[in-house]
Protein backbone atom coordinates (compact mmCIF):
# COMPACT_ATOMS: atom_id res chain seq x y z
CA UNK A 1 0.00 0.00 0.00
CA UNK A 2 1.06 3.58 -0.89
CA UNK A 3 1.38 6.13 1.86
CA UNK A 4 -1.71 8.29 2.19
CA UNK A 5 0.17 11.63 2.06
CA UNK A 6 1.96 11.33 -1.36
CA UNK A 7 -1.01 11.67 -3.77
CA UNK A 8 -1.96 14.91 -2.09
CA UNK A 9 1.47 16.43 -2.79
CA UNK A 10 1.30 15.41 -6.45
CA UNK A 11 -2.15 17.03 -6.83
CA UNK A 12 -0.83 20.20 -5.29
CA UNK A 13 1.93 20.32 -7.86
CA UNK A 14 -0.33 19.64 -10.87
CA UNK A 15 -3.09 22.12 -9.95
CA UNK A 16 -1.00 25.32 -10.04
CA UNK A 17 0.38 24.37 -13.46
CA UNK A 18 -3.12 23.85 -14.95
CA UNK A 19 -4.37 27.10 -13.47
CA UNK A 20 -1.38 28.96 -14.86
CA UNK A 21 -1.95 27.51 -18.37
CA UNK A 22 -5.62 28.47 -18.26
CA UNK A 23 -4.87 32.02 -17.14
CA UNK A 24 -2.28 32.37 -19.86
CA UNK A 25 -4.81 31.26 -22.45
CA UNK A 26 -7.37 33.83 -21.20
CA UNK A 27 -4.81 36.63 -21.34
CA UNK A 28 -3.76 35.75 -24.90
CA UNK A 29 -7.31 35.97 -26.35
CA UNK A 30 -7.87 39.72 -25.65
CA UNK A 31 -4.43 40.50 -27.09
CA UNK A 32 -5.43 38.78 -30.32
CA UNK A 33 -8.76 40.63 -30.41
CA UNK A 34 -7.08 43.91 -29.69
CA UNK A 35 -4.58 43.44 -32.47
CA UNK A 36 -7.33 42.68 -35.02
CA UNK A 37 -8.09 45.66 -37.39
CA UNK A 38 -11.69 46.61 -38.19
CA UNK A 39 -12.45 47.00 -41.91
CA UNK A 40 -13.95 50.41 -42.86
CA UNK A 41 -14.66 52.39 -46.01
CA UNK A 42 -13.29 55.91 -46.35
CA UNK A 43 -12.90 58.86 -48.69
CA UNK A 44 -10.09 61.36 -49.18
CA UNK A 45 -11.22 64.95 -48.66
CA UNK A 46 -10.72 67.80 -51.12
CA UNK A 47 -11.75 71.45 -51.34
CA UNK A 48 -14.65 72.42 -53.56
CA UNK A 49 -16.30 75.74 -54.35
CA UNK A 50 -19.79 75.35 -52.95
CA UNK A 51 -22.84 77.19 -54.15
CA UNK A 52 -26.43 77.59 -53.08
CA UNK A 53 -29.31 77.62 -55.52
CA UNK A 54 -31.52 80.66 -54.86
CA UNK A 55 -35.04 80.04 -56.14
CA UNK A 56 -37.61 82.83 -56.48
CA UNK A 57 -41.07 83.01 -58.01
CA UNK A 58 -42.10 85.92 -60.20
CA UNK A 59 -44.10 86.83 -63.28
CA UNK A 60 -43.51 88.00 -66.83
CA UNK A 61 -44.01 91.64 -67.78
CA UNK A 62 -43.23 93.71 -70.84
CA UNK A 63 -39.97 95.62 -70.75
CA UNK A 64 -41.82 98.70 -71.99
CA UNK A 65 -45.47 99.56 -71.46
CA UNK A 66 -47.04 102.60 -73.06
CA UNK A 67 -50.09 104.32 -71.58
CA UNK A 68 -51.94 105.91 -74.50
CA UNK A 69 -54.17 108.94 -74.01
CA UNK A 70 -55.62 111.69 -76.20
CA UNK A 71 -53.71 114.94 -76.45
CA UNK A 72 -56.98 116.87 -76.34
CA UNK A 73 -60.17 116.45 -74.35
CA UNK A 74 -63.47 115.27 -75.71
CA UNK A 75 -66.07 112.52 -75.83
CA UNK A 76 -65.00 109.04 -76.91
CA UNK A 77 -67.15 107.80 -79.78
CA UNK A 78 -65.22 104.61 -80.58
CA UNK A 79 -62.70 102.27 -78.94
CA UNK A 80 -61.35 99.81 -81.49
CA UNK A 81 -59.26 97.44 -79.33
CA UNK A 82 -59.79 95.19 -76.30
CA UNK A 83 -57.49 93.56 -73.78
CA UNK A 84 -55.31 90.91 -75.41
CA UNK A 85 -55.52 92.37 -78.92
CA UNK A 86 -52.30 92.67 -80.86
CA UNK A 87 -51.80 96.08 -82.44
CA UNK A 88 -49.43 97.26 -85.14
CA UNK A 89 -47.62 100.56 -85.48
CA UNK A 90 -49.96 103.33 -86.62
CA UNK A 91 -53.15 101.41 -85.85
CA UNK A 92 -56.07 103.49 -84.54
CA UNK A 93 -56.96 102.53 -80.98
CA UNK A 94 -59.83 104.94 -80.23
CA UNK A 95 -61.56 108.06 -81.59
CA UNK A 96 -63.04 111.25 -80.13
CA UNK A 97 -66.01 113.14 -81.49
CA UNK A 98 -64.32 115.26 -84.21
CA UNK A 99 -67.14 117.78 -84.82
CA UNK A 100 -65.62 120.67 -82.87
CA UNK A 101 -62.18 120.18 -84.39
CA UNK A 102 -63.63 119.98 -87.89
CA UNK A 103 -65.45 123.27 -87.32
CA UNK A 104 -62.25 124.84 -85.99
CA UNK A 105 -60.39 123.66 -89.09
CA UNK A 106 -63.02 125.11 -91.44
CA UNK A 107 -62.86 128.43 -89.56
CA UNK A 108 -59.08 128.51 -89.82
CA UNK A 109 -59.22 127.72 -93.53
CA UNK A 110 -61.72 130.57 -94.06
CA UNK A 111 -59.49 132.97 -92.17
CA UNK A 112 -56.58 131.89 -94.34
CA UNK A 113 -58.54 132.56 -97.52
CA UNK A 114 -59.47 136.06 -96.27
CA UNK A 115 -55.87 136.78 -95.33
CA UNK A 116 -54.64 135.70 -98.73
CA UNK A 117 -57.21 138.01 -100.42
CA UNK A 118 -56.04 140.92 -98.30
CA UNK A 119 -52.46 140.08 -99.14
CA UNK A 120 -53.26 140.05 -102.84
CA UNK A 121 -54.94 143.48 -102.58
CA UNK A 122 -52.12 144.94 -100.48
CA UNK A 123 -49.52 143.50 -102.82
CA UNK A 124 -51.16 145.12 -105.88
CA UNK A 125 -51.42 148.48 -104.11
CA UNK A 126 -47.76 148.27 -103.15
CA UNK A 127 -46.70 147.50 -106.74
CA UNK A 128 -48.65 150.53 -108.04
CA UNK A 129 -47.14 152.88 -105.43
CA UNK A 130 -43.68 151.60 -106.27
CA UNK A 131 -44.13 152.29 -109.97
CA UNK A 132 -45.67 155.73 -109.36
CA UNK A 133 -42.85 156.65 -106.98
CA UNK A 134 -40.26 155.80 -109.62
CA UNK A 135 -42.01 158.19 -112.04
CA UNK A 136 -42.56 160.90 -109.42
CA UNK A 137 -46.36 160.72 -109.44
CA UNK A 138 -46.79 159.82 -105.74
CA UNK A 139 -45.33 160.79 -102.42
CA UNK A 140 -42.86 158.86 -100.32
CA UNK A 141 -45.42 158.69 -97.47
CA UNK A 142 -48.03 156.97 -99.61
CA UNK A 143 -45.45 154.49 -100.88
CA UNK A 144 -44.33 153.61 -97.35
CA UNK A 145 -47.94 153.23 -96.24
CA UNK A 146 -48.61 150.75 -99.07
CA UNK A 147 -45.38 148.88 -98.24
CA UNK A 148 -46.40 148.55 -94.57
CA UNK A 149 -49.88 147.31 -95.53
CA UNK A 150 -48.28 144.67 -97.77
CA UNK A 151 -46.02 143.42 -94.97
CA UNK A 152 -48.99 143.34 -92.55
CA UNK A 153 -51.09 141.34 -94.99
CA UNK A 154 -48.23 138.88 -95.55
CA UNK A 155 -47.88 138.36 -91.78
CA UNK A 156 -51.60 137.78 -91.46
CA UNK A 157 -51.39 135.06 -94.12
CA UNK A 158 -48.55 133.34 -92.26
CA UNK A 159 -50.58 133.48 -89.04
CA UNK A 160 -53.65 132.07 -90.79
CA UNK A 161 -51.58 129.23 -92.28
CA UNK A 162 -50.26 128.38 -88.80
CA UNK A 163 -53.81 128.35 -87.43
CA UNK A 164 -54.82 125.94 -90.17
CA UNK A 165 -51.95 123.62 -89.31
CA UNK A 166 -52.90 123.74 -85.63
CA UNK A 167 -56.51 122.97 -86.49
CA UNK A 168 -55.42 120.06 -88.69
CA UNK A 169 -53.23 118.68 -85.88
CA UNK A 170 -56.08 118.91 -83.39
CA UNK A 171 -58.35 117.10 -85.80
CA UNK A 172 -55.71 114.40 -86.09
CA UNK A 173 -55.52 114.21 -82.29
CA UNK A 174 -59.10 112.93 -82.24
CA UNK A 175 -57.64 109.57 -83.37
CA UNK A 176 -55.50 107.70 -80.84
CA UNK A 177 -52.79 105.69 -82.68
CA UNK A 178 -50.17 103.20 -81.51
CA UNK A 179 -46.59 104.30 -82.12
CA UNK A 180 -45.23 100.72 -81.89
CA UNK A 181 -46.44 97.14 -82.20
CA UNK A 182 -47.56 95.43 -79.03
CA UNK A 183 -50.37 93.83 -77.04
CA UNK A 184 -53.16 95.63 -75.21
CA UNK A 185 -52.94 94.81 -71.50
CA UNK A 186 -55.50 97.25 -70.02
CA UNK A 187 -58.35 99.50 -71.10
CA UNK A 188 -59.17 102.52 -68.97
CA UNK A 189 -62.11 104.20 -70.75
CA UNK A 190 -65.24 103.24 -72.64
CA UNK A 191 -67.13 104.86 -75.56
CA UNK A 192 -69.35 107.72 -74.40
CA UNK A 193 -67.00 108.91 -71.66
CA UNK A 194 -65.70 112.48 -71.69
CA UNK A 195 -61.94 112.36 -71.08
CA UNK A 196 -59.34 114.97 -70.27
CA UNK A 197 -56.08 115.50 -72.18
CA UNK A 198 -53.53 112.83 -71.23
CA UNK A 199 -56.02 110.58 -69.44
CA UNK A 200 -55.02 106.90 -70.05
CA UNK A 201 -57.35 105.14 -72.47
CA UNK A 202 -55.46 101.89 -73.20
CA UNK A 203 -52.14 100.44 -72.04
CA UNK A 204 -50.05 98.54 -74.59
CA UNK A 205 -47.12 96.26 -73.81
CA UNK A 206 -44.62 96.82 -76.58
CA UNK A 207 -43.10 93.79 -78.26
CA UNK A 208 -39.47 94.82 -77.98
CA UNK A 209 -38.71 92.63 -74.95
CA UNK A 210 -39.98 90.87 -71.84
CA UNK A 211 -38.90 90.94 -68.21
CA UNK A 212 -39.24 88.43 -65.39
CA UNK A 213 -40.02 90.44 -62.26
CA UNK A 214 -39.08 89.05 -58.81
CA UNK A 215 -39.48 90.43 -55.27
CA UNK A 216 -36.04 89.97 -53.69
CA UNK A 217 -35.14 90.49 -49.99
CA UNK A 218 -32.43 93.03 -49.23
CA UNK A 219 -30.10 90.43 -47.67
CA UNK A 220 -30.19 88.35 -50.82
CA UNK A 221 -29.25 91.37 -52.91
CA UNK A 222 -26.17 91.91 -50.77
CA UNK A 223 -24.91 88.33 -51.19
CA UNK A 224 -25.80 87.91 -54.86
CA UNK A 225 -23.04 88.15 -57.49
CA UNK A 226 -22.68 91.27 -59.57
CA UNK A 227 -24.02 90.05 -62.93
CA UNK A 228 -25.51 86.58 -62.41
CA UNK A 229 -26.94 84.40 -65.14
CA UNK A 230 -30.49 83.51 -64.13
CA UNK A 231 -32.28 80.39 -65.35
CA UNK A 232 -35.99 81.05 -65.84
CA UNK A 233 -38.68 78.41 -66.32
CA UNK A 234 -42.47 78.31 -66.36
CA UNK A 235 -44.05 76.96 -63.18
CA UNK A 236 -46.72 75.02 -65.08
CA UNK A 237 -44.23 73.67 -67.66
CA UNK A 238 -40.63 73.49 -66.37
CA UNK A 239 -39.45 72.32 -69.79
CA UNK A 240 -39.99 75.87 -71.11
CA UNK A 241 -36.81 77.67 -70.06
CA UNK A 242 -34.83 80.78 -70.89
CA UNK A 243 -31.76 82.66 -69.68
CA UNK A 244 -31.83 86.20 -68.36
CA UNK A 245 -29.74 88.83 -66.63
CA UNK A 246 -30.64 91.54 -64.15
CA UNK A 247 -31.72 94.67 -66.02
CA UNK A 248 -33.07 96.88 -63.26
CA UNK A 249 -33.26 96.90 -59.44
CA UNK A 250 -35.84 99.08 -57.75
CA UNK A 251 -34.15 101.84 -55.72
CA UNK A 252 -36.81 101.69 -53.00
CA UNK A 253 -38.27 98.72 -51.12
CA UNK A 254 -41.95 97.92 -51.21
CA UNK A 255 -43.75 99.56 -48.29
CA UNK A 256 -45.58 96.34 -47.34
CA UNK A 257 -43.24 93.43 -48.16
CA UNK A 258 -39.95 95.36 -47.69
CA UNK A 259 -38.58 93.61 -50.77
CA UNK A 260 -37.03 95.09 -53.89
CA UNK A 261 -38.49 94.53 -57.36
CA UNK A 262 -35.80 93.10 -59.63
CA UNK A 263 -36.43 93.05 -63.38
CA UNK A 264 -34.58 90.34 -65.29
CA UNK A 265 -34.37 90.77 -69.05
CA UNK A 266 -35.23 87.49 -70.80
CA UNK A 267 -33.01 86.60 -73.75
CA UNK A 268 -35.06 85.24 -76.67
CA UNK A 269 -38.19 84.54 -74.58
CA UNK A 270 -40.18 81.49 -75.74
CA UNK A 271 -43.66 82.12 -77.09
CA UNK A 272 -45.10 80.16 -74.14
CA UNK A 273 -43.77 82.81 -71.71
CA UNK A 274 -46.71 85.10 -72.22
CA UNK A 275 -47.28 88.33 -70.34
CA UNK A 276 -48.43 87.60 -66.81
CA UNK A 277 -47.12 84.01 -66.76
CA UNK A 278 -45.75 82.76 -63.44
CA UNK A 279 -42.08 81.81 -63.66
CA UNK A 280 -39.36 80.47 -61.38
CA UNK A 281 -35.88 82.01 -61.39
CA UNK A 282 -32.78 80.16 -60.20
CA UNK A 283 -29.35 81.62 -59.61
CA UNK A 284 -26.25 79.96 -58.17
CA UNK A 285 -24.54 81.88 -55.36
CA UNK A 286 -21.06 80.73 -54.38
CA UNK A 287 -20.54 80.39 -50.62
CA UNK A 288 -16.76 79.78 -50.67
CA UNK A 289 -14.58 76.65 -50.46
CA UNK A 290 -15.98 73.71 -48.49
CA UNK A 291 -15.29 69.99 -48.15
CA UNK A 292 -18.09 67.66 -49.12
CA UNK A 293 -18.29 64.20 -47.56
CA UNK A 294 -20.97 61.50 -47.71
CA UNK A 295 -23.76 61.90 -45.20
CA UNK A 296 -22.99 58.43 -43.78
CA UNK A 297 -19.66 59.74 -42.44
CA UNK A 298 -21.34 62.09 -39.98
CA UNK A 299 -21.68 61.19 -36.29
CA UNK A 300 -21.90 63.18 -33.04
CA UNK A 301 -19.72 64.09 -30.10
CA UNK A 302 -21.18 66.04 -27.18
CA UNK A 303 -24.20 66.80 -29.33
CA UNK A 304 -22.07 68.34 -32.09
CA UNK A 305 -21.35 66.98 -35.60
CA UNK A 306 -18.16 64.93 -35.85
CA UNK A 307 -16.37 62.49 -38.15
CA UNK A 308 -13.81 59.70 -37.77
CA UNK A 309 -10.45 60.68 -39.26
CA UNK A 310 -7.87 57.99 -40.10
CA UNK A 311 -4.17 58.42 -39.26
CA UNK A 312 -2.49 57.04 -42.41
CA UNK A 313 0.75 56.23 -40.57
CA UNK A 314 -0.74 54.25 -37.68
CA UNK A 315 -4.01 53.20 -39.30
CA UNK A 316 -5.90 54.38 -36.24
CA UNK A 317 -8.98 56.56 -36.02
CA UNK A 318 -9.72 59.71 -34.04
CA UNK A 319 -13.02 61.51 -33.55
CA UNK A 320 -12.96 65.12 -34.73
CA UNK A 321 -15.65 67.80 -34.39
CA UNK A 322 -16.64 69.64 -37.60
CA UNK A 323 -18.82 72.54 -38.64
CA UNK A 324 -21.48 71.70 -41.20
CA UNK A 325 -22.29 74.43 -43.69
CA UNK A 326 -25.27 72.78 -45.39
CA UNK A 327 -26.94 69.42 -45.87
CA UNK A 328 -28.02 67.62 -49.03
CA UNK A 329 -29.78 64.24 -49.28
CA UNK A 330 -26.51 62.44 -50.09
CA UNK A 331 -23.73 64.63 -48.69
CA UNK A 332 -22.81 67.30 -46.16
CA UNK A 333 -20.65 70.38 -46.78
CA UNK A 334 -18.09 70.92 -44.02
CA UNK A 335 -16.76 74.45 -43.69
CA UNK A 336 -14.27 73.83 -40.86
CA UNK A 337 -12.73 70.95 -38.96
CA UNK A 338 -11.28 69.10 -41.96
CA UNK A 339 -8.38 69.73 -44.32
CA UNK A 340 -7.82 68.57 -47.88
CA UNK A 341 -6.21 65.12 -48.38
CA UNK A 342 -7.46 63.74 -45.05
CA UNK A 343 -9.06 60.28 -44.86
CA UNK A 344 -12.58 60.19 -43.40
CA UNK A 345 -14.44 56.99 -42.55
CA UNK A 346 -17.75 56.72 -44.40
CA UNK A 347 -18.95 53.20 -43.49
CA UNK A 348 -18.65 51.48 -40.11
CA UNK A 349 -18.59 54.62 -37.99
CA UNK A 350 -21.02 53.16 -35.40
CA UNK A 351 -18.56 50.46 -34.21
CA UNK A 352 -15.43 52.59 -33.82
CA UNK A 353 -13.71 53.97 -30.76
CA UNK A 354 -10.78 56.41 -30.43
CA UNK A 355 -7.38 54.83 -31.24
CA UNK A 356 -8.87 51.74 -32.84
CA UNK A 357 -6.90 50.02 -35.59
CA UNK A 358 -8.74 50.02 -38.94
CA UNK A 359 -8.22 48.44 -42.32
CA UNK A 360 -9.30 50.58 -45.28
CA UNK A 361 -11.43 48.75 -47.82
CA UNK A 362 -11.11 51.60 -50.27
CA UNK A 363 -10.12 55.26 -50.02
CA UNK A 364 -11.96 57.13 -52.72
CA UNK A 365 -10.69 60.47 -53.97
From TrEMBL:
Its main location: other. It holds the Pfam family BSH_RND. The keyword tRNA processing does not apply. Keywords: Coiled coil, Signal, Transport. It is found in: Cell envelope. Transmembrane segments: none annotated. This is RND transporter. The lineage of its organism: Bacteria, Pseudomonadati, Pseudomonadota, Alphaproteobacteria, Hyphomicrobiales.
Amino acid sequence: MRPAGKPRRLLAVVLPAAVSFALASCNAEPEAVKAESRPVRAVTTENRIAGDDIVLTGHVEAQNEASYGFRIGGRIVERLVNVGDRVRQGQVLARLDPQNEQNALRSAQAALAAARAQLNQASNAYDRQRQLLSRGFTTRAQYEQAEQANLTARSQVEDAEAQVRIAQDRLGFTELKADAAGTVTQRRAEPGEVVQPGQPIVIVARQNGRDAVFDVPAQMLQTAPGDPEIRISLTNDPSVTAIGRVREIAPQADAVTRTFAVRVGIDNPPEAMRLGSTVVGRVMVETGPVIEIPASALTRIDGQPAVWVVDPDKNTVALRQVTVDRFTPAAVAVSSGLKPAEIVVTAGVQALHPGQQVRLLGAQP
